[in-house]
Amino acid sequence: MRYSFIIPVYNRPDEVDELLESLTRQTDKDFEVIVVEDGSSVPCKEVVKHYADCLDIHYYNKPNSGPGQTRNYGAERSNGEYLIILDSDCILPEGYLAAVGAELQRERTDAFGGPDRAHESFSDVQKAINYAMTSFFTTGGIRGGKKKMDKFYPRSFNMGVRAEVYKTLGGFSKMRFGEDIDFSIRIFKGGYVCRLFPEAWVWHKRRTDLKKFFKQVHNSGIARINLYKKYPESLKIVHLLPAVFTLGVLFLLLGAPICVWSLSLLLLFALIICIDSTLQNNSLKIGMLSIVASFIQLTGYGTGFLRAWWKRCVLKKDEFAAFEKNFYK
């Protein structure tokens, strides 16, 4: 078998339904689907049953242990030459696997990843969040854009790896956040070939509101310091920018002497975000929401980064995460 899709799920039956439906429309059919329920209180077993006749699909239910260990659980029960890790809130275009196959045929690779986009059915907030997470002006394009400030590290919402490599590296670590970057770093350190497949993109919903989005990016900022403590060489200039931005906003709010100059730069940045997002989404409303989402993305990540730097690098505390009891609320 060529591919095994590994899909961890936690209380998202409706989204799993959309993802599985998109898998039925793939032009390349040489794959199996492994859905692993991570101790959900709202299971998707009945949803999976609906696709038993049209997909080679397998369903497992296990106690909650987080996404990384749930992916490992699914990988151990897979049969594919390549494992493709997806988040349950993704939808695949019908040519996704064909694009993966074309890239694998063109050039050998051990691991790969693709970018993400916003589907036309997404809410305006979700489209604004997608902009904040993928724009060159907010993330430097490091999540799969063609313009990048750092080399590409596959993310777990759209990540492929040869099963043999996955097994050799031991799969995902027990990190609750940043476990996909940890895995990508180990792929590079292991000397394996890892590439971006630009045409193997997915529609990715992410968070459904700005409050949940803040929790997500705040933990991403914390995870970056946790990764730095494990792999000091992994910290790049691009990872410092949200913290610098956050401190700049803080100084402005405190009435720093350079307030007029800082305010002008801040307004210019907001204007660039609004214009760029408006043109991309053909909507001024989404452009305005993108300003809010971008500020949340930068300050959420920045505050998490600074918080973790203080606790882990200054106070020498152990690895931690935020919002562990209410992350999904």
TrEMBL record:
<keyword id="KW-1133">Transmembrane helix</keyword>
<keyword id="KW-0808">Transferase</keyword>
<dbReference type="Pfam" id="PF00535">
    <property type="entry name" value="Glycos_transf_2"/>
</dbReference>
<dbReference type="InterPro" id="IPR029044">
    <property type="entry name" value="Nucleotide-diphossugar_trans"/>
</dbReference>
<dbReference type="GO" id="GO:0016757">
    <property type="term" value="F:glycosyltransferase activity"/>
</dbReference>
<protein>
    <recommendedName>
        <fullName>Glycosyltransferase 2-like domain-containing protein</fullName>
    </recommendedName>
</protein>
<keyword id="KW-0472">Membrane</keyword>
<comment type="similarity">
    <text>Belongs to the glycosyltransferase 2 family.</text>
</comment>
<keyword id="KW-0328">Glycosyltransferase</keyword>
<feature type="domain" description="Glycosyltransferase 2-like">
    <location>
        <begin position="4"/>
        <end position="162"/>
    </location>
</feature>
<dbReference type="InterPro" id="IPR001173">
    <property type="entry name" value="Glyco_trans_2-like"/>
</dbReference>
<feature type="transmembrane region" description="Helical">
    <location>
        <begin position="286"/>
        <end position="310"/>
    </location>
</feature>
<feature type="transmembrane region" description="Helical">
    <location>
        <begin position="260"/>
        <end position="279"/>
    </location>
</feature>
<keyword id="KW-0812">Transmembrane</keyword>
